[in-house]
């Protein structure tokens, strides 16, 4: 009796509820979350054609089930849906009802619809420098991304959306006019840029977006923007999955960030994320791309956004986020704490190294135990209380400050508690993570091209996998070296332009220059000055790996113009070195 009769006909292709879908096995991965997997949401650079490949099923068509008189409404399709669902199941159209940028309220669920008219589409023409050939620029290209209007006739978007910009335009929702925009400030570290439009017509009928508080876990968020897949505005929804210190890929910094499960695709960059009250709680900027991860997007939260805005209003320019110029070690091991003279009730982190160029180098020392920052106690794992039931890295406290602010630090040194007031400054690295829009510097003598190592230069030379392809010594300096003086730079021989005078030196590539005629080379400007003013018979360059290059001074200077003409190079040095 328990057996049921099998129905005649073809076996259905779709599995029954007792037969769940089997996903293909994924390849094992040692580390799903890594910088190489985090991807900045690229701006859309070309139109995408959407095609369907559905075909008629073979065999006899299935009979349609009989519907009752009042059928339950089917859920909307996941793609190209003209409306979105709210928590009570009511659909709110996104095509109208919010004219002038004002907030519309759903009368049933009392949920506020975000101010769609304040979200704009950003068009940018980029012209990137060629870091491998620093006297040239690459071919220009166009991209589109998202942005939104804030108070003071300003527009916010992502910094990578207008990086190396030549021209920026914005277009309002429902408009056919693109307005020229002016870039007011670019915050590379926090990946935020501020624009404005001089045309008064652009600001007619647009109300600025209001910012909300930092959301809690599981709070609903709605991401609005102009992603790939269409030309009109797009709305995706999700919840806040995680709040912690994140790695900002574009700026190579670590700041507070939100992880959400709403879809964030190419073109969403710079678009706002709204809460249920219609207030902006963040800016979409990057996502995690991995075969084992789905719907992991990241949003710049309001504390970081407000820091950027207030920094610009206070200094009329972006000055950056300060950091504490130290490297520290966790103190979770009880034997380590006892050896460092810590009492059972004391907690903190041990200073490994202090940046020689940072102001705190005058008061802090290696093996000091940092107990608190601005009166907030630091745990042995480097975290501080954040909200109820949450902890966060103490670097969050530092990032809330501004460059030039003072902070109180309590340290334990030789079992004695000391208190210091430290002036905070922005961080500088031996190999900078970005050039802040400036063209690369270079100097050429006798076919030897000297330039400065930076992360964009390494990416240009070795591709996006430069962390694996670049020379080990350059990577070691990138990860571990600290500046010994404020004007120090890592100068290398980028390449040798072949000529009769440099025979035998053609294979020298990306090798650091240590000294010239026995004098250390601190930066590229100093190298150019020493070469131009040299009266010695020979130019002797001491390179890394115990290599030397010797050139006759007069011959080298005389041969340089012909080499420049042969390779169509306009000048022997960049504009910033001529100044």
Automatic annotation (TrEMBL):
* KW Hydrolase (keyword) present: yes
GO MF, one term, reads: serine-type endopeptidase activity
- Give the start-end ranges of region Disordered: 1-81
Question: Record's superkingdom?
Answer: Eukaryota
Q: Does the keyword Protease apply?
A: yes
Under the heading InterPro entries, the entry gives: AT_hook_DNA-bd_motif, DEGP_PDZ, DEGP_PDZ_sf, PDZ_sf, Peptidase_S1_PA, Peptidase_S1_PA_chymotrypsin, Peptidase_S1C
Coiled-coil portions: none
Please cite one Gene Ontology biological process associated with this protein.
proteolysis
Q: What are the entry keywords?
A: Hydrolase, Protease, Serine protease
Compositionally biased intervals (Pro residues):
14-27, 71-80
Family designation? Belongs to the peptidase S1C family.
- UniProt protein name: Protease Do-like PDZ domain-containing protein
Record organism: Gossypium darwinii
């Amino acid at each position: 009796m328990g057996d049921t009769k099998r129905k005649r006909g073809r076996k259905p292709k779709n599995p029954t509820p007792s037969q769940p879908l089997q996903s293909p096995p994924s390849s094992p991965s040692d580390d799903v979350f890594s910088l190489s997997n985090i991807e900045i949401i690229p701006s859309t650079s070309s139109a995408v054609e959407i095609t369907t490949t559905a075909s008629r099923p073979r065999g006899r068509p299935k009979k349609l089930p009989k519907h009752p008189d009042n059928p339950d409404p089917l859920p909307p399709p996941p793609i190209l849906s003209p409306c979105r669902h709210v928590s009570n199941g009511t659909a709110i159209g996104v095509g109208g009802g919010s004219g002038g940028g004002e907030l519309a309220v759903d009368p049933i669920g009392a949920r506020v619809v975000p101010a769609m008219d304040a979200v704009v589409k950003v068009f940018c023409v980029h012209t990137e420098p060629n870091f491998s050939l620093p006297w040239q620029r690459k071919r220009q290209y166009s991209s589109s991304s998202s942005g939104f209007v804030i108070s003071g006739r300003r527009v916010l978007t992502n910094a990578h959306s207008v990086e190396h910009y030549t021209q920026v335009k914005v277009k309002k929702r429902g408009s056919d006019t693109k307005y020229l925009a002016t870039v007011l400030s670019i915050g590379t570290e926090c990946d935020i840029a501020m624009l404005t439009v001089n045309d008064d017509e652009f600001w007619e009928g647009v109300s600025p977006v209001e910012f909300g508080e930092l959301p809690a876990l599981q709070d609903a968020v709605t991401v609005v923007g102009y992603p790939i897949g269409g030309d009109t505005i797009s709305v995706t929804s999700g919840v806040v999955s995680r709040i912690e210190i994140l790695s900002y890929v574009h700026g190579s910094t670590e700041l507070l960030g939100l992880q959400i499960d709403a879809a964030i695709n190419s073109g969403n960059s710079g678009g706002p994320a709204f809460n249920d009250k219609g207030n902006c709680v963040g800016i979409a900027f990057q996502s995690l791309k991995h075969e084992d991860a789905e719907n992991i997007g990241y949003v710049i939260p309001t504390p970081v956004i407000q820091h950027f805005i207030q920094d610009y209003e206070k200094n009329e320019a972006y000055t950056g986020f300060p950091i504490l110029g130290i490297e520290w070690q966790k103190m979770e091991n009880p034997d380590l704490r006892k050896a460092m003279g810590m009492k059972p009730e004391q907690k903190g982190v041990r200073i490994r190294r202090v940046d020689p160029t940072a102001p705190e180098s005058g008061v802090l020392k290696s093996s000091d135990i940092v107990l608190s920052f601005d009166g907030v106690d630091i745990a042995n794992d480097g975290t501080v209380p954040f909200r109820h039931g949450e902890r966060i890295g103490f670097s969050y406290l530092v990032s809330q400050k501004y460059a030039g602010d003072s902070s109180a630090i309590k340290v334990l040194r030789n079992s004695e508690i000391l208190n210091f007031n430290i002036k905070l400054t922005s961080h500088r690295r031996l190999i900078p993570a970005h050039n802040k829009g400036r063209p690369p510097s270079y100097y050429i003598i006798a076919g030897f091209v000297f330039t400065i190592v930076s992360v964009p230069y390494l990416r240009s030379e070795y591709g996006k996998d430069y962390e694996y392809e670049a020379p080990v010594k350059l990577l070691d300096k990138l990860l571990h070296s600290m500046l010994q003086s404020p004007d120090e730079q890592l100068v290398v021989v980028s390449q040798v332009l072949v000529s009769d005078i440099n025979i035998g030196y053609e294979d020298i590539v990306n090798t650091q220059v240590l000294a010239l005629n026995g004098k250390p080379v601190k930066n590229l400007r100093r190298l150019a000055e020493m070469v131009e003013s040299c009266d010695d018979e020979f130019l002797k360059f001491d390179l890394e790996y115990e290599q030397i290059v010797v050139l006759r001074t007069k011959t080298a200077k005389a041969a340089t113009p012909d080499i420049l003409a042969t390779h169509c190079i306009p000048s022997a040095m960049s504009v910033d070195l001529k100044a």
